[in-house]
């Protein structure tokens, strides 16, 4: 199995602790990339990839900011090597975006009326009968 792409610089101390999880998520990502997408809508084929990308970034965010289990050097290394999404993590640090699923859901240029995605609307404001899925990432509600 190929290793996680890295620069020539050796990873900082503590990499051995997170490497199995990162490799497992990368293996899942490769599996979903090669999975056939017959019978799915065009956007549905990308949903598992967005989900795994979110999981990797959330894993590192939780380790560094919530549990303080990894060093700043290791966190910066993961950001520099694009193992985690720096822009998504930056949004998670802001109020109201703690559970944001992807950056496309808050870009107003991707919607018809210049508003946020439907998954950003609180569930209390929507009909309880209707199941809402984001067209970008498949999220069913990341606003709370």
Task: Please specify the SSE layout and strand pairing.
Layout: H1 15-34, H2 47-66, H3 72-80, H4 86-92
Helix pairs in contact: 1-2
Helix run count: 4
Q: Strand portion, in percent? A: under 5%
The amount of helix comes to: 25-40%
Query: What distance lies between the first and last C-alpha atoms, to the nearest angstrom?
Result: 38 Å
The count of domains is 2
Largest sheet report: none
Please give the radius of gyration in angstroms.
17 Å
Report a brief summary of the structure:
Helix content is 39%, strand content 0%. It is built from four helices and no strands. Helix 1 packs antiparallel against helix 2.
Plain-language structure description:
This protein is mainly α and 144 residues long. The protein is built from 4 helices and no strands. It is globular. The chain has 2 domains: 6-93, no CATH class; 96-144, no CATH class.
Features:
144 residues; globular; 4 helices; 2 domains
């Amino acid at each position: 199995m190929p290793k996680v792409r890295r620069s020539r610089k050796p990873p900082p101390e503590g990499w051995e602790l997170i490497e199995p999880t990162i490799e497992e998520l990368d293996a899942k990502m490769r599996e979903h990339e090669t999975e056939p997408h017959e019978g799915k809508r065009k956007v549905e084929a990308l949903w598992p990839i967005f989900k795994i990308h979110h999981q990797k970034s959330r894993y590192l965010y939780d380790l560094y900011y919530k549990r303080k289990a990894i060093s700043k050097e290791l966190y910066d290394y993961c950001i520099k090597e694009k193992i985690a999404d720096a822009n998504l993590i930056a949004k998670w640090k802001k109020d109201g975006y703690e559970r944001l699923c992807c950056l496309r859901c808050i870009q107003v240029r991707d919607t018809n009326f210049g508003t946020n995605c439907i998954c950003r609307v609180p569930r209390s404001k929507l009909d309880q009968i209707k199941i809402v899925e984001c067209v970008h990432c498949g999220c069913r509600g990341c606003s709370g």
